[in-house]
């Protein structure tokens, strides 16, 4: 079973963002749950989005007997904001066999990330995600919702475009280095010339991304 999480800056989008990718993974022989979650707001933060994912995983597990797949031992895949949530959920719940994160914001507590969001008028989204006002990158709430700071021993595949102007490729490079330092099984694939869609909107690159993701899942589907 693959749990798939769409992107959309935690504040827009839905299952339509990942429906084709879900079908493509399914065509490789996997059962896929294309999962939606609430948008952040003044009353909804990262913990609520993680609760939505947890509820979806519980629902999928409960339905396993009916549809004939495993009750546990799932894999989680996310794109952009969904990749952030996949990492955060995987590392904190520790109930996934592997994680695949595409163009993931992994360190929201860095001053560079905060400054970037402020300059682009999106700091309010991060504040809603953290559930608090942000003055600088050292805010404890940002540390708590940054996957870089919650790493656990879950095999992690990272895919990122080196021309991403929304989430700098350094976010995945730094997470990869930290995973290696902590002895976690990991792999980093950098897509040359690809932006924030990491090639998922280009047929040949999307196919390669799906191959890399499914090969990673097979490797850790034990």
Fold topology:
Elements lengths: L1 E4 L13 H8 L5 E4 L10 H17 L1 H4 L6 E6 L1 H13 L2 E7 L8 H9 L3 H8 L9 H5 L11 E6 L8 H12 L4 E6 L11 H17 L3
Parallel strand pairs: 1-2, 1-3, 3-4, 4-5, 5-6
Question: Order of strands in the sheet with the most strands?
Answer: 2-1-3-4-5-6
Rg, rounded, reads: 16 Å
Portion in strands: 5-15%
The chain-level mean pLDDT equals 95
Overview of this protein structure:
It contains nine helices and six strands, in the order E-H-E-H-H-E-H-E-H-H-H-E-H-E-H. It is an alpha/beta fold and 222 residues long. Strands 2-1-3-4-5-6 form a six-stranded parallel sheet, sandwiched between helices. Strand 1, helix 1 (19-26) and strand 2 form a beta-alpha-beta unit. The mean pLDDT is 95.
């Amino acid at each position: 079973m693959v749990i798939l999480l769409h992107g959309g800056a935690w504040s827009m989008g839905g299952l339509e963002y990942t429906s084709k990718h879900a079908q493509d993974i399914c065509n490789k022989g996997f059962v896929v749950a294309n999962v939606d979650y609430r948008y952040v707001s003044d009353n909804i933060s990262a913990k609520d989005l993680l609760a939505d994912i947890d509820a979806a995983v519980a629902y999928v597990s409960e339905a396993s007997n009916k549809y004939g797949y495993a009750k546990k031992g799932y894999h989680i895949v996310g794109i952009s904001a969904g990749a952030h949530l996949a990492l955060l959920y995987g590392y904190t719940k520790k109930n996934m066999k592997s994680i695949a994160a595409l163009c993931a914001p992994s360190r929201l507590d860095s001053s560079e990330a905060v400054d970037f969001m402020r300059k682009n008028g999106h700091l309010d989204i991060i504040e809603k995600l953290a559930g608090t006002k942000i003055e600088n990158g050292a805010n404890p709430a940002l540390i708590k919702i940054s996957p870089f700071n919650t790493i656990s021993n879950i095999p992690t595949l990272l895919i990122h475009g080196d021309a991403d102007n929304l989430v700098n490729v350094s976010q995945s490079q730094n997470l990869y280095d930290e995973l290696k330092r902590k002895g976690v099984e990991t792999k980093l694939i950098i897509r040359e010339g690809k932006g924030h869609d990491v090639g998922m909107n280009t047929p040949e690159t999307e196919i390669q991304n799906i191959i890399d993701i499914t090969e990673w899942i097979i490797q850790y589907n034990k």
